[in-house]
Amino acid sequence: METRILSNEKIASGIYKLVFEWKGGIPSPGQFVMVDCKGKTFLKRPISVCSADDKSMTIVYQVKGEGTKNLFEMKKGDTIEVTGPHGHGFELYEDKNVLIVGGGIGIPPLLYLAKKIKAKNLYIALGFKREIFLVEEFKNLGKVIVTTEDGSFGKKGMVTQGIEDIIDKIDIIYGCGPKPMLKALKEISLKNNIPCQISVEERMACGIGACLVCACKVKKDGGFEYKRVCKDGPVFWAEEVEF
């Protein structure tokens, strides 16, 4: 779908929030879109949905390579090609004590989840290296705990250390972030017997399950199998995923 950019603003060092017109289907929290960054790049880039309605969609991306470099140079009024929504999102459980845990660029899609989930009590743990973003938006939705690796904001340490005091209050956990964080979150959920859904990240090419590039190792019948992150995920139950 060819769509027009409404805004493209920097919200932290190397982190940008892009809003564009959207007349496609409204995504579920945890789904993603494939964005044509134009320029010299051939493949679209998978970017999770930060928020969406029947008129516009917001994504937050990090400038890391040639594709996203082209993307951050685009201005209001420019057009881009976006397909989706793709993938399997989070399963939402109502009237539960919910813990959302995000790390780094895995944080933006959890804002959409926090807006949509109907929790009894919502706890949100956000982990950053140093510079924070989207924290104020999360504060409007639940009780927020912020950690930074250098202690420049909130608690010093890793985000999974910031949830130790509240874990006994939680009925279900949702997480998105780097693999070491997700692995630690899986261990915490198993130790405390709390169901946990995680959104994993793998390199993608097609975004529709055809190319098999984004395989993820998951448990099955005492052994394991590979599932496609773009089609079967990106959200899985944490206990399934082999790190």
Return the average pLDDT rounded to an integer. 89
Number of helices: 4
What structural class results from the helix and strand content?
mainly beta
β-strand number: 15
The global form is: globular
Distance between the termini: 35 Å
Describe the model:
The protein is mainly β and 243 residues long. The chain has three domains: 2-86, Translation factors (Elongation Factor Tu (Ef-tu), domain 3, Beta Barrel); 90-199, 3-Layer(aba) Sandwich (Rossmann fold), CATH 3.40.50; 202-234, no CATH class. It contains four helices and 15 strands. This is Dihydroorotate dehydrogenase B (NAD(+)), electron transfer subunit. One of its GO terms (biological process) is 'de novo' UMP biosynthetic process. GO terms for molecular function: 2 iron, 2 sulfur cluster binding; electron transfer activity; flavin adenine dinucleotide binding; metal ion binding; oxidoreductase activity. InterPro entries: Cyt_c3_hydrogenase_gsu, Dihydroorotate_DH_ele_sf, Dihydroorotate_DH_Fe-S-bd, Dihydroorotate_DHASE_ETsu, FAD-bd_FR_type, FNR_nucleotide-bd, PyrK_electron_transfer, Riboflavin_synthase-like_b-brl.
